[in-house]
Amino acid sequence: MNEVAHDALYDLRHSTAHLMAQAVGELFPGVKYAIGPPIEDGFYYDLEFKEPLKEEELARIEEKMREIAGRNLPIVREEKERAEARAFEEALDQPYKVALIDDLPEGEVISFYRQGDWIDLCRGPHLPSTGSMKHFKLLHIAGAYWRGSEKNKMLTRIYGTVWPTKQELYDYLQRLEEAKLRDHRKLGKELGLFVFAPEAIGSGIPLFLPKGEMLRHTMESYVREVQTRYGYQHVWTGHLVREDLYKKSGHYENYADVMFPPMRDEEAGINYRLKPMNCPSHMTLFNAQYHSYRDLPLRYAEFATLYRYEKTGELNGLTRVRALTQDDCHIFCTEDQIESEFALALKLIREVLTRYGFTDYRVRLSLRGEEPGGKYVADDEKWRKATDALRSALDANAVEYFEAPGEAAFYGPKADFLTKDALGREWQISTIQVDFIQPARLGCKYIDAESNEQTPVVLHRAVTGTTERFLGVLIEQYAGAFPFWLAPEQIVLIPIAERHYAYANEVGEQLKAAGFRVKMDDRNEKMGKRIRESEMQKIPVMLILGDKDIENSTVSVRRRTEGDLGAMSLEAALALFAHYRDA
RNA sequence: GCCUCUGUGGCGCAGUGGUAGCGCAACUGUCUUGUAAACAGUAGGUCAUCGGUUCAAAUCCGAUCGGAGGCUCCA
Question: Is A460 marked active-site?
Answer without folding.
Answer: yes
